[in-house]
Amino acid sequence: MPEGYCVKCKAKKEIASAVEETMKNGRKAIKGTCPTCGTVMFKILGGKASAPSSAPGSTPSSP
Q: Which of 1, 10, 34, 36 could be cross-linked to 6 through a Cys-Cys bond (beta carbons 3.0 to 4.6 Å apart)?
């Protein structure tokens, strides 16, 4: 289980009922609840989600 920081308990805790999701900017995050107080916990993960093979707006070069 992923570990995150609970701002209400002011301690690191395991994130209960964690769900991985992708934010608007394409980064991955884990959202769940604190097992002690029930506050929503949110942890941003490193790296971005897999991007499409070709970047938008780029044109292939022709010889």
A: 34
